[in-house]
Amino acid sequence: MSTLLAAALATLVFCAPGYPGGAGDAQPLIDQFASAAVAVSGWPVGSLAAVYDPTEEGGLAKLSGADAALAFVPYPFFVEHAAQLHLTPLVQADVTDIGPKERWTLVAKSGRITGPASMAGYTILSVAGYAPDFVRHSALGSWPLPPDIKIEQTGQILSALRRVAAGEPVAALLDQTQAAALSSLPFAADLKAVVQSPELPVAVIAVVDSRVTASRARTLQAGLLKMGQASGSADSLQPLRLHGFVLPELPSSAVVP
Amino acid sequence: MIVLAAAACAPRPRPAPPVQSAVPASVTAMAAAIELDAKRSDQEPDSKIRDQLAAEAERDAQSCLALEPQAAACLYGSAIAFGLEARAHPTRAGEFLTSMLDALARAESANPIYDEAGPARVRALVLIRAPGWPLGPGDAEAGVAAARRAVALRPLYPPNLLALAEALAKNGDGSGAQENYARARAAALASPAAADRDEWLRQADQGLQRK
User: Fold this and answer.
1) How confident is the model at residue B47 (pLDDT cuts 50, 70, 90)?
2) B2 vs A178: CB contact, 8 Å cut-off?
3) For B171-197, what is each residue's pLDDT tens digit?
4) Are residues B128 and B107 part of one domain?
5) What is the CATH class of A2-98+202-246?
6) Which domain-ending residue is among B59, B88, B111?
7) Residue A27: its pLDDT value, please?
């Protein structure tokens, strides 16, 4: 009986603050993903539920629920909350058109920033702005920011870049997809990439607070690593813009609970 | 990062627009058929049927445009059909939403007051709800500009005020959003009782509660 209960229902919480997609729109896709993950891992059918929350607060609330056993989160979220939530990385996402790792790029108005000290009084806007530890220590670890700098989250990166180009004391920290598209902007000539992060994981699936037993975590990890190769499971990855998963390769400075 | 259902942002079209006397009956009929497909799609839980409705609307839009390539009714209908395609095929949403915006721009040029300033209003909703650059055509600031155009053309039509309120909220202008939700509510209360009016009131009340 206890074995049955233990295998009963774990919840995988997806949370991607600042990225498009509402909970209702996402639900069928993450349900499909959870079913495929269970099938490829040999977990009992129906033993993994999935929920999505597009906000940091909502994601944190869901992850604090007793049934929240797994988290699928962007790396900035992981850096910011891994210690608090006791997240243990299981796999790293291999994202379509990006791969398992990406570089973040700090963009400022051309000719305005000559070094970290010249950013005094600036605000950094980013989709990852909800994770200031990630911005300061992971993305810009080699670029020691002045203490008075503000870091703010925005989902409106185009508006942020317009402010940068207009000469406001603002810089934008872009993910790899955004940085790659910079040249498509009509005001691209007014912008300059001033520093780039080392390669960092894009997103991870992590066990929350040891709520999955070690043996179940191992079977799930093995299953997730097969996704993208096994027929059927690949179909559940494509709508999420995923190729598959690889073993986690976190930077040595990453927080480990 | 992960994009979850980036597509489901195509706004629900308003009920069929008033018949334009200068528009040929067949064009009007096809525009009405597209509106009907859109309404049915909105209530249809089966994705396969939504797919069929999107294809049907697309065929009607093409036939309409073949008859009257510059008619606002056909261009607007075509935009709605692209919106249905975006919902039905989330992985191709970006291209459909871009085509939708293009058709709306042409509809607005042809007749900006069609469907109570529908081209500018629907354009605003797409711009504020679609994924933003670089993943999609969303542009919250441009959404405000489009919503302001719709309100300037038809200032008492509640959906225009609701669109402006939503656009301002998306841009972080909470007080502007509240002001326009209140104006939308007042305009809805002044409208004849109908199912639409109840829906406008519901949306305005929901917006006013979001302080």
Assistant:
1) confident
2) no
3) 999 999 999 999 999 999 999 888 789
4) no
5) alpha beta
6) B111
7) 85
Query: Hey, is the C-beta of B190 within 8 angstroms of any chain A C-beta?
Result: no
Is B145 a member of any domain?
yes
Q: Which DSSP string do the residues of A2-63 spell out, in sequence order?
A: HHHHHTT-EEEEEE-TTSS--HHHHHHHHHHHHHHHHHHHTPPTT-EEEEEESSHHHHHHHH
Closest-CA distance of chain A to residue B12, Å: 15
In whole angstroms, what is the distance from residue A248 CA to residue A65 CA? 25
Token pair belonging to A16: 């991607």
CB spacing of B6 vs A180 below 8 angstroms: no
Min Cα distance A169 → chain B (Å) is 19
Residues B137 and B204 in one domain: yes
Structural domain includes residue B49:
yes
Contact residues, chain B, for A238 at CB < 8 Å: 91
**Contact at CB, A239 and B136, closer than 8 angstroms:** no
Grade residue A64 by pLDDT with cuts at 50, 70 and 90. Answer: very high
Give the pLDDT of residue B14. Answer: 52
How many structural domains is chain B composed of? 2
- Chain A contacts to B (CB-CB under 8 A): 14, 16, 19-22, 24-26, 28-30, 52, 54, 72, 74, 93, 95, 127, 155-159, 162, 175, 177-178, 180-181, 184-185, 202-203, 238-242
Q: Which neighbouring-strand residues pair with A205?
A: A72, A91
CB B91 to CB A158 under 8 A?
A: no
Residues of A in contact with B139 (CB under 8 A): 158
Instruction: Write out residues 138-157 of B within 8 Å (CB-CB) of A.
Output: 138-141
Q: B136 lies in a domain?
A: yes
Would you say the pTM of this structure is higher than 0.90?
Answer: no
Q: Which residues of A touch B170 (CB under 8 A)?
A: 156
Domain-embedded: residue B12: no
Which has the minimum average pLDDT: A242-246, B34-38, B43-47, B107-111? B43-47
Same fold, A2-98+202-246 and A104-196: yes
| For chain B, the helix, strand and coil percentages under 3-state DSSP, each to the nearest 5 | 70, 0, 25
Write the class of the CATH domain A104-196.
alpha beta
The domain locations on chain A are: 2-98+202-246, 104-196
For residue A232, count other CB atoms closer than 10 A to its CB: 11
Residue whose pair of structure tokens reads 């607060």 in the numeric block: A57
Contacts of B136 in chain A (CB under 8 A): 20
Residue where one domain finishes, among candidates B89, B111, B133: B111
Q: Which domain holds residue B37?
A: 23-111
Residue range B195-208: mean pLDDT, rounded: 94
| pLDDT, tens digit (0-9, with 9 covering 90-100), for A142-188 | 999 999 999 999 989 999 999 999 999 999 999 999 999 999 999 99
- The pLDDT value recorded for residue A165 is 97
Q: Give the residue among B47, B64, B141, B168 at the shortest CA–CA distance from B106.
A: B64
- The mean predicted confidence, pLDDT, of chain B is 88
On chain B, the residues whose CB falls within 8 A of the CB of A28 are 5
pLDDT band per the 50, 70, 90 thresholds, residue A18: confident
CA-CA distances (angstroms) from residue A32 to A135, A166, A230, B2, B36?
Answer: 33, 44, 15, 15, 31
